Each structure stands twice: as C-alpha cells, then as structure tokens.
Amino acid sequence: MSVDNSAHIKTANLKGLALKDFFKGAYALANCECCVCNTPLRDAESVELGIGPVCRKKYGYTNAPASNVDLMAALTILTTAQIDMDVFKYVLANKDSVRMMNNILVAYSTYLMGQKRGAEIVKITPAIRAFGYTLLADKLEIDRTKHKFLTIGLTSDLFFRTDNRTIINEMNKYLDLDHKQVKGFKGKGFVLTTDEHKEVAEWLCAKHAPRDLVYINGGAAILNIDTMTEPAVIANYVEPLNKHNYAYRLEFDASLSATVFTYPFPCPKVFNGLRVHGKVVPEIVNGYRYKQTILRTPDEMALAMWLIAGELNGNGSAYVNGTDVPMPLQSALPLPNLMSAPKKKTPQDIKFRVWYSSARSINVATPVPWDHDWVRPLQGDLKKLGAKFDKATLSWRLPKATENEIWALIAQHSPYTKCDFPAL
Questions:
Q1: pLDDT tens-digit profile of 87-104?
Q2: DSSP 153
C-alpha cells in the first residue's frame, strides 16, 4: 500500500517550501508513530488510526471511512479561520476525499509552524474534528498549547503540564503537589486526582495565562477568569509564617518526641537560665548538623518561654510550632516550676557515691566542696573516723566496720539519707 503524498507536495509547492524541510516538519507536527513498527506518521488517516499503511496491509487492517463527517461545518470553520486563499481553494477542489482535505490541512499546519504562526493551527483543528479526525486534531492541539490537561490511562486522574513558572509555584503553594515526571508523558507535571485539584489548576491558568490556549476536555480553549469562581482553597488560604524572621523558635520534632529550641548566639541569659535551672544544654541529636537545645518536658518549655519574655521585654513574638506567639513582659508570667520548686537532685546528679571497694573497705566520693557548703564539714568528720583519700578513685576510704557511723554523718551534714543511695 503506497502513501499518497500529493496533498503534502502540492501544498508545499503552493507555499514555496523545500520538500525535504517540509516533510521533516510534518513528521514532527503530527508527533505520532506506528503502533507496530514505530515509524513516524504524518498521513491524516495513519495518524488517526495509529498505524501506518504498510502495517495496515501486512496485518489486514481496513481503512474504515471517517464517521460523523460534517462538511459544511468544517468549511464554515475554515472560512472563519481565514486560512490562505490558495489553500482554501485546494481544500474545496478535493471535497470528495475527507482524507485528502485533512492531509492538506496537516500540510498547511506544517507551513504555519515554519512561519512561526503555530498559534493559528488551533483555529483549523475544529474543522479537522468536523471531518471526523478527532485524534489527529487532538495531537495537533496538544503540541500547540502551553498548558495541557491530559487523561491518565483509564482513570479519572489528569496529568497537568505547564511551562508557566508562576502557575507551577502556586500549585505547590496551594495544593502541595509534587511537580514530577509521570510515565507515558513528556516533561514534568502535576497529577490531579480530585475536582478541587482541577479547579485550582484551571483558575491559575486563567489568572496567570489569560491569553494562552489551554488543552482541556479534549480541545483547546482560552479560559476566562471573569466567568470562573475563585476556588475555596485559594480564597481561604493563609500564608504560612516565615520562621526565619523570628529570633526565638520552638518547633516540635516528632522523630525526637521533643521540642527544638533555637535562639540567637550569644544569648547568655537564656543559655545560663536553661543550664542552671533546667540542666538543659545544647546536644548532638540525629538529623541535625549542629548541636541543638532540646526541651523534653512541659516545665522546660515553660522555663524557655519565661526566659524569652525576659529577653524581648514585651516587644516581640516567638515562633511556636508554626504560630506567632506575642510575648508579654516577664513579670506577667508565673515563675516556672523549675525555679519556684526546683526538683531535688539525686546523689548521682552531684556525683555523691558510696560503695564497697573490698571485703573490708567502704569508699565515699563526695561532691566538689565549692558547690555545696556541707561537703567540707562532712569530709572533716570522715577524717576523724579514719578516712584516707584514695587518689585512684578520688574518694575517701574507710573501714567497713564504720558503715553505720558513715550513714549517720551523711544524714547529719547533707540533705540525703541512706535511702537516697542505690543499694550497696
């Protein structure tokens, strides 16, 4: 089965095009390959059927005549589109062959692309549909439009592709959708799975590309924002806070089950307040490059807020889990529990230990004396019991027989008793 090139050749001659360049453009324009051998197609009937003439003959496909042909409607559309008169006359001369007329229009479309008049193609694609070649019209329109809504397989989902950077950014902003590659489609786009997604995409096209053609519902159209209702997701959108505008930030991290506290450096009042009253200091945690201040209890959170209020002095806000929290004067806040009722430290917290060092000896490691007034009197009485300082363990060694006297001295001088220590 041979391919009839006469429509393409004559149209090329009418418009003064070199055949080599003309046919190259025609293949690119149709953007279609044979489903059997992958040969590029540009004949109207081959594009519509998706299979070339050689493969149709080889595998027994018949050339079904185009259905739903409305010749008068097609010619009316071409008249309105004001195509070149010599091409229009050529179409009329072949009104007895639908395939021939469509090939002439494909050839004319190739000429328009070469003249940088590709936008005019969408004016003649309705005529191609009226001739019964819907798939051919779709392929011509899809490549001529900057914004496309394409069906994904047999689903109701749509693949929305656009090259407008503003539309892409606002799709991410309002819908938080990924701009990604989808198998079976060229370029990156958005997968629209709900009516809300489609409504927002159409409205953004109408707003930011009011003069551009949009391929939607199987055809190319210009969307008019004046006839559309602003989507609720856009109308009700609240711009998220930029946390980097805040000097003091408290953000809950689910992976840590704790709050990460960020504050300026240096900030000695906040740093020392957390260290002294909450024993909170910056630490290395997974997922962060630098040391972070981690608040793990409500009391530590309250202490941090109280310290922030003292720094801001009523003139600023803190960023707390995505919200802006105005900070009052420190005097207006209750004193944090960690300051008003500090938790009693255990002996282990202050490195106060008692243990058996041998079958006949007991050792006592006292805290550093400059942190606690009761340490030196305790050490003095331990010496009276015969304590010797053990440099290896930095503790006082006494006979095991003096254990009861040792516990009595600890209870007398320190805030601890035997019950506060681990069992020996």
A1: 888 888 888 888 888 888
A2: T
